[in-house]
User: Fold these one by one.
Assistant:
Number 1:
Amino acid sequence: MYAYVDETGNTGNRIFDLDQPLFITAAMMTRANFDAVQKAAVTAIAKKAGVQELHANEMGIAKVEEIAGDLLKLAKVAQARFFLSRLEKRYLGATKVIDTYFDSGENLAVPWQAYSIRHLRLLLVFKVATYVLTDDIAHTVWDCLTAKKEGTSLARFIEGAKAMLARAHNLPDARSQQIVSEAMQWAIENPENFSFHTKNKALRFSHSPNHVAFSALVIGIDEASNTWKSPVREIVHDRQMELEETLRYHHEIVTNASDQVLHWPGDPPMSMRRVPGSVLRMVTNQPSPGLQVIDVILWLFKRTLTDHDIGPESARLLQQVFRRGKQNDLSFAGVGNQVKAAMQMINDAPLGDDQLEFGRNFVAKSEERRQAAMKAYGAEKARGQEAAD
């Protein structure tokens, strides 16, 4: 199968641009090579609209509405599937704060379950984002992750931890206050145990909305491939010069990853390997019929997200996309609804005495391991300092 990918809202690592709060991606997937099979059809549709190529932003809603019915017919003929993704950049910033400071593998003061169990980690994201984070802190942490110089990155890391420590008392419950306060104090005292800086430019851009959205999109393409039982031959992506190296790096990693099934608490079993054997082709000047079609669909999808009107023919086209597609929503609203539903199921589930006892023992043992790990790290660090002196 073949996939055609477009995106909008690109600001690279400049995620706090108020004019571009969302990063949106879309993919159209077909069994056959759409560019080869449907070239003449797309050319005819463009001619009907009076343009050389389909670029919705240049055409405007009137011309898009004029050809939307033709694109709907074409999508049905091609039996196309779709993947749509919305990423709220403020939400991304909040998750990066949690990943930077609260990974229990690096911050030994964080209880294992608070970060490693998905729903507890997401609750931490929402609490910290609501009661602790400010725009200044979010900017500071983002500067830490994207700084070219290690010294700058270290200074921003400590600055961000101190600022969050000073605001931890704003959290609504004593347990959250304790977790955040102890985590920030340990981070300030032991920054050498955290991996927040990289000299590799491609890895620095791995924090960008482009890379995060591309990661989700590759999973969506892989799932469509499994549904069709058809391997992905080619992913055609509208070229992004600044991010091309990062996207190619990610594609190479996941296509060559182990197919071993991993089990993470709160997540379904999964393998890191995605779209094996596929080719990632970045397109610039050479027109791609598939990219032209997904350009129009992406533009219409963005209009619906930003409360702009679309016509009835365009609405029917999007309805087909929704019927034949999946959506990924990385936003406070979208993820919040998922967490709320999951926590409601957990809270409603009956708990027997054996399960309650298991939970109490688990938490007690987790606390023992946390305290022992911090003590051992402190002792090893002290011995290292004595040897250096």
Number 2:
Amino acid sequence: MTIPPPQRLRFGRAARLKRGADFSRLRQAGERQVSGCLIANWQRRPAEAASRLGVITGSRIGGAVVRNRARRLLREAFRLHQHDLATPVDLVLVARASITGKGFAEVERDYLAALRKAGLLSPARRPNA
């Protein structure tokens, strides 16, 4: 039995949502799931496309340092689990005020719970979190 090569866990420019029109499209036409410290808005993409992520952190969360930490935590959760998605999606994660003071394990747990509730995780690769 051969072991498959590990998948690259990159989060490059092609994996980012940058245009305001994309964020608006997901908010209006996409689906929504709330879980703990985040809100996930998503829309499925064609099978040959790659998943993309956008992160929103409002000023209600706190100052620049707090907002940047929240963005880093959410991006890292996506980066580590991007290959666990059943189908490619455009995903926007909105940080809620409760993300303040949380560690990565708690944010990751909320992220995976949102994906699980939404049915976006691949059944063969469901992480135990």
